[in-house]
Amino acid sequence: GAVVSQHPSRVICKSGTSVKIECRSLDFQATTMFWYRQFPKKSLMLMATSNEGSKATYEQGVEKDKFLINHASLTLSTLTVTSAHPEDSSFYICSARLAGSVWETQYFGPGTRLLVL
Amino acid sequence: GENVEQHPSTLSVQEGDSAVIKCTYSDSASNYFPWYKQELGKRPQLIIDIRSNVGEKKDQRIAVTLNKTAKHFSLHITETQPEDSAVYFCAASPRNNDMRFGAGTRLTVKP
Questions:
Q1: pLDDT on residue A84
Q2: Rounded CA gap, B104 and B71, in Å?
Q3: Which residues of chain B fall below pLDDT 70?
Q4: Backbone φ and ψ of A15, nearest 5°
């Protein structure tokens, strides 16, 4: 149980294009999903918290117009990197928290490796 | 906001020895402390967690201890095996929707 998928697993795009990453909870409903960014050999940096049916909450320093988040259902959240540039290249990981759970356990997706040329 | 510090950044042990990783947190309101294991290029996997209403939790070779007064918690791995080699992250959660991770510890278990 508590499986989270992410698609695509890796993407290479040209500078200036937009890339959409999907995060799905496969066997549970997730009221809240989280988007992290991870640089090589570094920790997980929270970018934003995505709540179903409402606007995402972005961490300080994360441009909301650059990283568009949509959480349209209890099983799907999407992150769109708009007008991507080489500095956006990174490993993006989502996580999901079980709807209605008292505790904070997050289950992670497998990640999406983005390379912007 | 919450700030989590993790030590050491790298740890090398001989197979069969124990490994200990320590974390401190700043927000006394934090009440949930998970530990994740991440292998290269893969997702973080929850290996054990502890809530603030207990001081210790054990699951086979893995144990976690929590000292709320000192605001620190530790991961203990006994009888280490090569497959325990990975990066381990601690985290602290002070309230809904807000979990902060430590910088990670790269554990190498030498056969």
A1: 96
A2: 18
A3: 95-97
A4: -60, 135
CA–CA distance, A36 with A1 (Å, rounded to integer): 22
Q: Is A7 on the interface with B (CB under 8 A)?
A: no
- CA geometry: angle at A35 spanning A74 and B108, to 5°? 120
pLDDT tens digits along A60-116:
999 999 999 998 888 999 999 999 999 999 999 999 987 666 566 889 999 999 999
**B105 in contact with chain A, both atoms CB, cutoff 8 A:** no
pLDDT for residue A100? 66
Q: Cβ A103–B32 below 8 Å, yes or no?
A: yes
Q: Which residue of A has its CA nearest to B87?
A: A41
For chain B, the first-to-last Cα distance in angstroms comes to 41
**A113, A109, A103: which is closest to A4 by C-alpha?**
A109
Cβ neighbours of residue B72 closer than 8 Å, sequence gap 6 or more = B22, B23, B24, B25, B66
Give the C-alpha distances (Å, rounded to integers) separating A18 from A69, A76, A107, B78. 13, 19, 26, 46
Give Cα B70 distance to the centre of its chain.
Answer: 16
Cβ contacts of A42 on chain B, cutoff 8 Å: 103-104
Q: Report the pLDDT value the prediction gives residue B71, as an integer from 0 to 100.
A: 95
